[in-house]
Amino acid sequence: MLDSVRTRLTLWYVSVLALVLVAFSLGVYFLLTRSLYERLDGGLRATLDAMVVSLEREIAEPESPKQAAVSTVEELFYPHQALAVFDAEGRLMAERTSQDGYRAQLPALALIPGQGVYLYTAPEVKDDAGIRIGVRRVKVATSGPAYVIAVGQSLETVTEELELLRHVFAVAVPAVLVLAGLGGWFLARKSLRPVVTMSDRARQLGAENLDERLPVSNPRDELGRLAGAFNELLARLEASFAQQRQFMADASHELRTPLGVIQTAAGVTLERERRGEGDYREALKLISEQARRLTRVVEDMFMLARVDAGRHPLHRSHFYLDELLGETARAAAVLAARKGVEIDMTGLPETLYEGDEDLLRRMVLNLLDNAIKHTPAGGQVRLGLRREESKYLITVTDTGGGIPPEAQPNIFERFYRADKARARAQAGNGSGAGLGLAISRWIAEAHEGALELERSDETGSTFVASLPAPNKT
């Protein structure tokens, strides 16, 4: 039962309330006890003052000390108080008991101070309440006799009031806790109802219905923000699943084409029992080209899978960026020469850089390969390098027909190709799978840079890869 958040919240609420109520009850009880005793002691002090005044008046008359004491106790009448007058040696001279029969007892004389009032509580044999007694020494005149006066009052009234308060607390505190517990249970149940609803809805979600969302009753409170965060997670999962499904569909499509070509070439070659050496060579050449394409596609897919899983670390080293661009341009020049495209390297200043040399070479080669494929014979591809403030800019510009405006926002997506028919026709010159730009952008971002399409129109396209440069000293 304690596994329920509702139960734990209710128990915590009731426990905290119980501590508060107990502390409040004890505080009230002690304050009332102090107030009642102070009020009782104040009444005893007032009676003692009245006895002093009466005793002084009686002594002034020609009476004996004993007669003055008797007159004093008889003159003052307080039904709930007992009065007594003693001589200096503690011998009783006169007394009046209360209407309940209580007497004002005298403590040991050594405890009574010379001045002031001595208050103490004496036990009473009739009940357990006890008697509160105030004692005071009195000397009426310099040459006159000394007296000890005492006033006593039962604590029964104080005890009854405190007992009534204890009974009230004993009944009220448990009743309040029970009501608070029921109220807390109801409020916790009502407050956590959205959590139960979200839990039931989340339990129904799966890969087939990730488009559904959790209900959000109040987006401004904590539960609403939790549901909103969970819905954002569902949106990311939905996008990830959609990307995965699209990736699998595109990958299957890209792999099916070269496999179909290989199967067809092998089947046609094997249909006839006897073929010439040239036929077999032609078939094997076609199969080899498609196998290279398959290898390139699989390697690119494997690399992207490692990137998505975060398991493709960078192997940084120091090298000259201008030398890397020159070597990559010379390697791409072979492909460009076959197509009749010229590669021009303009302004490659000596640039020392720290990064993953193999990955950066692959990025530049992908950009050059993409530019060469989309540049007609007689065209030109320009490769440039320059520094601009705190970054190096690698530019690749071609003189092709440009990228359609509607396709430009999607060119960095995986397996996306603006001209799919032309890409398949040129499949032998690269992967042709639409993964080169996606991999190139990741390489730039892995180096804390970026890869963007700067412009693209009927005169050609320009891609710019920016890499962070060290601060100048």
Please explain how this structure is put together.
- Helix 6 (321-339) packs parallel to helix 7 (357-373) and helix 7 (357-373) packs antiparallel against helix 9.
- Residues 420-431 have low confidence and may be disordered.
- A hairpin with a 6-residue loop joins strand 4 (131-139) and strand 5.
- The protein contains nine helices and twelve strands.
- The longest helix is centred in the N-terminal third of the chain and has 56 residues, at 5-60.
- The chain has a five-stranded antiparallel sheet with strand order 2-1-5-4-3. It has a five-stranded mixed sheet with strand order 7-9-10-12-11. The protein has a two-stranded antiparallel ribbon with strand order 6-8.
- With 473 residues, the protein is α+β, with helices and mostly antiparallel strands.
